[in-house]
Amino acid sequence: MSKNALSSQPETATPALVQPDRDQSATPIHLVEKSSYETWAAARQPAQRAALAGQKFKGSAGSFAVYPDGDGFAVVAGVEKLESLSSWCLGKLGEALPAGLYRLANKDVKAAKAFIGWALGQYRFDRYRSENGEEGPRILLTQEVAAIAPALAEAGAVTLVRDLVNTPAEDMGPADLEHEAERLAKAHRAHIKVTRGEALADDYPIVHMVGRAAAREAAPRLIELEWGDEKAPRLAIVGKGVCFDTGGLDLKPSSAMLLMKKDMGGAAHALALARLVMESGLKVRLHLLIPAVENAVSGNAFRPGDVLRSRKGLSVEIGNTDAEGRLILGDALTRASEFKPDLLIDFATLTGAARVALGPDLPALFTRQDATAQALIDGGIAQDDPVWRLPLHDGYREWLKSDIADLNNAPSGGFAGASVAALFLDRFVGEGIDWAHFDTFAWRPSAKAGRPKGGEALGLRASWAMVKARFG
Q: Which residue numbers delimit the Cytosol aminopeptidase domain (predicted)?
């Protein structure tokens, strides 16, 4: 895993990347808006202005420069608006500055929101590198002490998602997801129950059928974790845990398999959100469910045309074995619904259709209730983790019909693929339950400030903002 203060591993050798300011010696960082940069620069010494001009710094948002300051150096960085810093305005600084202590020179600027970008700009996934090449952490000092722990908790949750998604399937199979859940349960004194292999056949038959073709060490399982006061409002979180997706007998082309280590990204998001809930001591009864499988090819793989019986009793005709995520989620959503949660959230890397519609940055959001959707959208805007709502259009439910079963998992036609997949899941969520479904990419194809290429949490911070507001 990444060897930094935010790693999902319980290592504490690296100090927290944001710390209380106790007047330590530190390099100043000046934040400026482009419109006021010239005025700010005019107050610098000639040698300092020359250094900035030599770097062609103009105060544009996202850019920064260093200049001589006494026996050391100072930093100036451009931001959009000083009165409302974004989560990512310090991301590039956290990534690129030399190791050491820093503080913001702008005394009247509220910087708490930007702490996460500073921390996540230092994320590295170096598990498989013989040399990590890191010289040490960049630590930001602040007097906004109360904001440090929540920001680093969120950054740690994002790091957990990144680490799990970036890890190849050989080291992140169903058993490894189970191990991650066990570590989480141990850390927070939660109860964990795991149903594995053949034991799934009676209670979680679709999870069993989808995952049975994998090798024994990658046997399918349903992972459940419960935590909190049994009398508190019940929050269920479900995550798709397809640790590698070959497509099954409807085999993907090799090019489409290259990123399939990330097909357990929904499980990573679910684990991370559960961690935030427990770390914060939120007053809920948490129920985390992860169906973990590998969609493999062997002599006993489930086949196109098979009819599978689900935990709910609905029969599903298999139109395509590569639409396996919605199948295993069906059993998990049924189980979650049996306890009638006050809120049920699921995360899944479910459809390419969502990516075609919204691109890599925006998770597709589906909800039954308008108020829940708006709360999640508002949370995303507040936390710079935007989401976009797509419809659960009743007119498309007929596309799920099968000639011989209750449902078809992959109807022909190809229209509205993300909505049709969400409507399939809707059949397994209990009546009247407030449910939100995220069809997320869990991957960043190109780097941005504080957000390197690779595994990514998309929709996590929006969900956490909404959950905190609702149950906090």
A: 320-327
Residues 6+ apart with CB under 8 A from 338: 430
Residue 1 falls inside a structural domain: no
What angle is formed at CA 410 by the lines to CA 428 and CA 454, rounded to 5 degrees?
85
d(CA 263, CA 266): 7
> Are 213 and 117 in the same domain?
no
Residues composing the chain: 472
pLDDT value of residue 13: 44
User: What CATH number is associated with residue 176?
Assistant: 3.40.630.10
Q: Are 278 and 286 in contact (CB under 8 A)?
A: yes
CATH of the domain at 43: 3.40.220.10
Give Cα separations from 190 to 237, 395, 460 (angstroms): 15, 42, 21
Show the domain range for 104: 18-145
pLDDT, tens only, 328-354: 999 999 999 999 999 999 999 999 999
Q: Which residues does the annotation mark as catalytic?
A: 252, 326
CA atoms of 314 and 428, how far apart (whole Å): 9
CA 50/CA 25 separation, integer angstroms: 25
